[in-house]
């Protein structure tokens, strides 16, 4: 989800995120995921504000090795993202995360998930801090 620079700082992003996630949860979604660049990686330190903002809004990082599938033919998989889960969700089963990842790979690449993906059970939901 992206908010135009001219419309930022008024609470629109937080409202859109909360209402979209709330609607999905109300309609039976077991989890609502998002992706953000991993600010701990070299050259990605500018990604901290987005991650910290999502965490202030209640999102938590899924403590797992995640790799985004190629989103179109000819594109590469993205190995520099974190998977986040949007609130409100107190706990998350590995089966739920795997179901999301498998469906995402099936829809985008028509194949199995990347072999480097690792999701432990129970899934730890964490907050990262800029150091």
How would you characterize the overall build of this protein?
The chain is an alpha+beta fold. The chain has one domain (31-126). Helices cover 31% and strands 11% of the residues. It contains three helices and four strands, in the order αβαββαβ. It has helices spanning 12-26, 48-56, 94-109; strands at residues 33-37, 60-62, 81-85, 125-126. A four-stranded antiparallel beta sheet has the order 1-3-2-4, covered by helices on one side. The longest helix has 16 residues, at 94-109. The chain is globular, with a radius of gyration of 15 Å.
List keywords for this structure.
3 helices; single chain; four-stranded antiparallel sheet
Write a compact overview of the structure shown.
With 131 residues, the chain is of the alpha+beta class. 31% of the residues lie in helices and 11% in strands.
